[in-house]
Amino acid sequence: MFNRLLSRITSFTGKPSGFLIFGTVFLSLFLAWQYQTGIRVGDGAIKQQQLADLLQNGLPDFSCRYSGKEIDPEFRFLPLDLKKGSTMTHVYKGKCYYVFPFYYTAIQYPFALLMGRFGSFFLSLVFGVLTLRALFQISELFQLKEKAKFFYLLLLLLGSAFSLFSTDLSETIIAIYGVTQGIYFLLKEDESSKSIDLVLSGGFFGFAAFFRQETILLAASLSIVYAFRIFRNPKTALFPFTFGTLLILQAVINYSIVGHPLGSRGYLQESSPYDLVAQIYYLGQLVFLGNGSLGLFGAYPALAFIALWRPKSDPLTRILYGLGIFILLSGFLTSTKFWQGVLFGPRFLITILPFLLLFLFSILEKNWETLSKPFKITAVLLLSYSIVGGIAFDRLYYKFTKSVVTEQKELSDHTSKTVIYRKGSVFLPSNSFREEREVYEIDSTESFDALLEKLNGIGKTQVTIVGFKDSYPKEILVPQSEHFEFKNRIFYQSPSINMETLDFSKVHAKPQR
User: Fold this and answer.
1) Closest by Cα among 121, 137, 133 to 186
2) Residue 495 scores a pLDDT above 80
3) 266 pLDDT exceeds 60?
4) Which of 85, 265, 291, 361 is most buried (CB neighbours < 10 A)?
5) What's the confidence (pLDDT) of residue 41?
6) Strand runs labelled E in 234-382
């Protein structure tokens, strides 16, 4: 009975429509499970704020709205500013900008107008489904059998971060789609004499690069490999030429808006000193493990079976060589300020992971009959380990998001209209509260007094000081002040955050006799 059911399912997912329907239904249910009001923290919260600001500013103004711009034109109290050692905002020509690509904000814009906050998540779902379509196309080129397609789909949906990126607030899934579709057209290079395949491939990689900068390294790595074929087959130059044209276009747009060819992310890259030893360790994180997360082989040890593959003079071999170069370049050139992990699997290699896993199944299928029983058992156990790990991470992310929703409610209920974060404690930007707040960040007692002076100058008399409870216990949450006195102090502690609302007034010097 089980075999009959499995046969029906694999027959269904072995067809293009069945593969997409199965994947779409799963991702839709996954989104319904993980959405939880759509409130996010960290990168997700900043991306939501970035979109909210664009909706207020209107296209094409991608600058951030800073509530203190009038009283703080130097942006001294701008939350998460690069100049204060953070990684989210920077200032250029009297305006502040977020470090995430404004192209992602722009592509969300129509979805947000139609669907509100949910629109960004629906956009991810759309590109997740498009990626599944591209992966099925590649599976056809690999001549994968129905059963292999089904088990690959299970591994992709349950054992990787693909489902999460396809249903969360992230530009990564857009880049995954661009890379996967681009690889599909590269794989068709030999079987098709049409130059359009190389143009389309370069176009899709160029499209992906608008959203994730590691795609630039990936396309450059593939271009290095393809450079050796240009003299034998000049049309292969169409791939780097098309990609390069789009990259130059992006650089021009970036420079015209934020003053850097790599966009706001470029400022963050420049702020990190290069340390070869640190980069070698970072490469180890990407490939194996480190800093609390598993790398490529740490999360997917079954990829070791790729060793059964034998190189040929074909597009697949060239692509795999390019991916190898890309992994090395990612380790040595990506800023170590960027935490690479998503806890299970490498964050900065996720764009190539769906393809690598599909290639793994192709290798296993072609060699399965010749593998000894111990190797077959090992392969099944390693794949099962990845699925269990992926499910465990998805469950952890669900619990984390649930805690974020709780914290958002606590902050919305127990803060005043003006919120002052202690350094390193920025949890929610202004738009993520139930009602929008004025948000500032201080890094010292002196900056606290200076901010209160400015707020007092425009008639503000009440603020809430917020800090993570492990870093700022009640006794030190509110900095000492020589120029202001505090009264009507109300302290509140949420599961992870301390906050104290108070009225402040200036201390008037006593007249001298």
Assistant:
1) 137
2) yes
3) yes
4) 361
5) 85
6) 289-290, 293-294
Distance, in Å, from the CA atom of 39 to the CA atom of 408, rounded to the nearest integer, reads 8
The DSSP string of 438-482 is EEEEE-SHHHHHHHHHHHHHTT--EEEEEEETTTS-HHHHSPP-S
Task: Report residue 71 as tokens.
Answer: 């009283």
Query: Contact, 128 vs 162, CB < 8 A?
Result: yes
* pLDDT > 80? residue 337: no
- Identify the H or E element spanning 249: helix 238-258
The whole-angstrom separation of Cα 32 and Cα 50 is: 24
Q: Tell me, what's the pLDDT at 50?
A: 96
pTM score, whole prediction = 0.95
Q: Tell me the pLDDT of the chain averaged across its residues.
A: 93
Q: Which residue has the higher pLDDT, 133 or 289?
A: 133
SS3 content of the chain, % helix, strand, coil (to 5): 60, 10, 30
Q: What average pLDDT does range 23-28 have in this prediction?
A: 98
Beta-carbon count within 10 A of 35 CB: 15
pLDDT at residue number 193: 66
Question: What is the pairing mode between strands 497-506 and 462-468?
Answer: antiparallel
What confidence score (pLDDT) does residue 342 get?
Answer: 56
Sheet arrangement for strand 462-468: 438-442, 418-422, 462-468, 497-506, 484-493
Residue 71, classified by CB atoms within 10 Å of its CB into exposed (0-12), middle (13-18) or buried (19+), is middle
> Residue 510's pLDDT is what?
55
Tokens read off for 413: 């209920």
> Which residue type, as a one-letter code, is found at position 248?
I
Structural domain spans, the chain: 413-506
3-class secondary-structure state, position 190: coil
Report, as an integer, the average pLDDT of 374-382.
97
Distances (CA, A) of 502 to 132, 463, 486, 489: 53, 6, 6, 4
CB 157 within 8 A of CB 27: yes
71 has pLDDT over 80:
yes
- In this structure, the strands spanning 438-442 and 418-422 are parallel
CB 184 within 8 A of CB 197: no
How far CA 372 is from CA of 140, 367, 368, in Å, comes to 27, 10, 8
pLDDT band at 339 (very low <50, low <70, confident <90, very high): low
Measured distance between the N- and C-terminal CA atoms of the chain, rounded to whole angstroms: 100
Report yes or no: 222 and 352 within 8 Å, Cβ to Cβ. no
Distance of CA 241 to the CA centre of its chain: 27
Q: Please, what is the Cα angle at 285 between 295 and 265, to 5 degrees?
A: 100
Percent of the chain surpassing pLDDT 90? 81
